[in-house]
Amino acid sequence: MFSLNQRTNRALAGFLGLGAALAPISASAHVKWFAPYIVDAAPAPLTRTLSDPYFWTGIVLVLVFFVAARLIERSAAGTATLDAMDRVTDPLWRHLDTFMRIVVAGFFVAIFAVGGVYLTPDLQTPAEWVSWLQLLIAAGIVSRKTMPLSAAGIIFLWVLALRDYEFFHLLDYLALGVAVAGYLVLESSNRPDWRKHRFELLRWGVAIALMWSSLEKFAYPEWFYPLVVEKPFLTFGIPRDMFIPMAGIAEFTMGFGLLATPLIRRLSAIALFVIFNAAVYPFGRIDLIGHALIMAIIVAIAVDHTRELHFWGWIRRSLVGVPLGLASALVIFATAYWGLHAAFFGPDAQTMAELRTEQTEMATHTFSLEYPHGPIASPDMSGADSEQGAEAPDAGTLTATEAYERSMMGMHEEMMEGLRHDDPDVAFVLGMIPHHQGAIDMARIQLAAGSDRTNMALAQHIIAEQQKEIEAMRAWLRQRGIETE
Length: 485
Fold this sequence. Notes:
The chain is mostly helical. The protein has helices at residues 28-34, 46-50, 53-74, 76-93, 96-114, 128-140, 147-161, 167-187, 192-195, 198-214, 216-219, 225-230, 240-257, 262-283, 285-290, 292-303, 313-317, 321-345, 352-355, 400-419, 424-449, 453-479.
């Protein structure tokens, strides 16, 4: 139901392996909150990924880690480790259904309070009644008799979102949504042969959601460029073009690990839990709300004492199953992702670079202070207003150089006038406001005339941050009875 990802740790050697893969994950959900997401845009060709040495480096590291972990799991040390995990997690394991029901109900209460969304901040809706339906879903989880109705409500919200968003975009939220709804149905059932699969269904839902969303890092790496500019600490100094594919491999393989043998899936869950928690502080409470169900299911996987493998157990236990399973998963998911996009939008769909910023009606959000990397509805230098309300320089048919020069001349005059104020504190603020506005004007010209993706992302970041500071300075002036607008 939610896009996933974030990154936190580093340690490149263990980077991709489950426990050590604590570095790159969690940008997908955020990618759609912070960067332009044009559903119709064509993904990068698969050959680009297959020719990337970092992609294959990540694959090799993962295979080594999985084989080593599987060998340990076969030994007495592996059995002892699982037994120790069982003892530590036993109190929660015995009350896991109660835990899951509380979290699911709490999640729907939280998005009811946020308002204006279907199932995640990426899926917005102006329909107020949707929020009240979310509250009813939460109330239905209190009783086992009404849990199937809550499950139906979750599926209904996903179907409802199809009216406003492309089916391909909604696939990001299908697996987890179905898994949570299915869990509620199985948990409320009186048939033991059904109920025993309820946590397994949750595990498959999260695994599929992770593996599917990870492909965005290979199909649309440019979505992640603004996030790297906005929060450079996320990469821990790793070069962008190395970090993004390695992050994709880490996310995909940890999702794959959730479907593996008991020790590997529990280690994968622990690593993912650390990663998602690390995302909360940089991205705020909305991240916690958006990923609450994912994190709860990851906890359920980590404490799950079940050691039986119901599907394809023999291949999942064997060493050859590691490379065979991972290769099969990559082929299946990549074929589905690129194939379905071509089926929905045609093989000749335009790329993000070709669509550029004028296609704002195709994006899931446009520029605002909340979404500083959304596309700005300003395809030329004609002086169209942005959503901030501040006017861009009236460049008309000027060249970029002439537009830059005009914006700087206007900034200089206003700045010098402000600096002449008798009060040095007021003079500082009156001088800084036009200084910041000049930076905003230059950034808008860059967005209208430029083409470099890194500079475009930086320009959008400058607009968002400088506008916030302008508003803070104007508020400071208003407290002293000085109006500047």
